[in-house]
Design goal:
By secondary structure, the chain is mainly alpha-helical. It has 5 helices and 2 strands, in the order H-H-H-E-E-H-H. The protein starts with 12 loop residues before the first helix and ends in a 5-residue tail after the last helix.
Length: about 120
């Protein structure tokens, strides 16, 4: 598993780790039942605090992506299609909100913004 931490990112390190592992699970780069690196070894590899890694794993467990088994490690859970859909919907909403905010900055009308969306969807009016 290849995790890249950026010091220039606005996201906290644990969020960067969590997002990259979640994405790898969704894309089937890490599959159901696969064991994740131990909290200590991942922290050591990334040269970060064990607490930071623990936070990322804890959040992933709370979100239903992994399960922690005492003394055995953390394993990827079967994908919950509804959970993945909800995650992606949140991402889409975030991107739409950012696009709307950018449109307001340049006084782009709602119809112009919708036209851009239609063009991008291939449904040019």
């Amino acid at each position: 598993m290849n995790i890249v931490i950026s010091n220039k990112s606005d996201l906290p390190i644990y969020e960067q780790i969590k997002d990259q592992i979640r994405s790898a699970i969704i894309r089937d780069e890490i599959v159901e039942g696969e064991m994740l690196p131990s909290i200590r070894s991942l922290a050591q590899d990334l040269k970060i605090s064990v607490i930071t890694t623990m936070r990322a794993y804890s959040d992933l467990e709370a979100e239903g992506f992994i399960a922690s088994m005492q003394g055995k490690g953390c394993f990827v859970l079967p994908k919950n299609k509804e959970l993945i859909k909800e995650q992606k919907l949140r991402e889409i909403e975030t991107h739409f909100s950012e696009a709307i905010a950018s449109a307001k900055i340049i006084d782009l009308s709602d119809s112009e913004l919708k036209e851009i969306l239609h063009i991008l969807l291939g449904e040019e009016e």
